[in-house]
Amino acid sequence: MIDCFATPKRTVTAFAGAAVVLLGFLSQPTLAGDPFRTSNPRAIGDNTETAFELIFKDGDYKKAKDYLQKAESTEGNEPLVYALLASLSYLDAKSQSKPNFDSFKTYASKTRTTAEKLAATDSLRGNLYMAVGHFLEGAADFEQDGPVRAVSKLQKVFEYLDEAKKSDPNDPEFNLITGYMDLMLAVNLPFSDPAQAIQKLENYGYPKYLSYRGIAVGKRDLKKYDEALDYVNRALQLTPNNPEVLYLKAQILVRQDKDKEALDYFNQSLAKQTQLPNYSAAQITYERCKVQNSLDNGSRDCRAERNKVRAGNN
Length: 314
What we know:
It is built from 15 helices and no strands. By secondary structure, the chain is mainly α. It folds into 2 domains: about 5-210, no CATH class; about 240-314, Serine Threonine Protein Phosphatase 5, Tetratricopeptide repeat (Alpha Horseshoe), CATH 1.25.40. This is Tetratricopeptide repeat protein.
């Protein structure tokens, strides 16, 4: 694992941001409500699986929330339910003028405590989601109290990930989640090599639409734009209507100085903005506005447009 304690503030900033990407980016497996495995599935639950696919395959957070509320009452022994609810709560809080992260922290803690119970019967997933729970709690501490308290969570994250790995280092769920974590930390920390994280997502991560999406994000941040475009196109082949993947392609095209082509993908993404949390839709609106200004030599107030959407006035 990366020695994160040498640069705690920068590390925890990446740590907090990665929480959104992770739980904030195909085949269609239906075995036992398990979206991660095509063989030896876990009984994760149908409502949880549907919510997962609505968020990450379709980019429809609004419908997903309904299924997560059902899952909370019928599949409440599944830590993924609370990890996804934590992600939605985080995005809701970020949309507020005075963010309140109490709900986010509550769901983060439920992720951890539910995982502790699961570990008695499923060491891999129990330890994996104990790591995720500590990860999310660290992000909550970062938002509320700054980096000092959050840093203490990092050791726990790595400790439980190491325990999960002992059960099956090639497990697709383990590699998808840790691949995203490692990649987000690697592209934000000096002297870190993201190659191992990318290889993990490429070789073992599943579902593939999320693996390809994660690799595209990593390649984008590494400024390998041609490779990023290749992987986002692979993700789009599997999830052609996901507004967040359309947005990711728009971002990559902007970095390739293809503003006109990028604008089309921003527009396609925003055509589905009612599916997205206000915070996400507002950021897409802001970046689209900047591209439109560049193309038109315009002077639209992009911050005002962003803030209007963030407040729900879209």
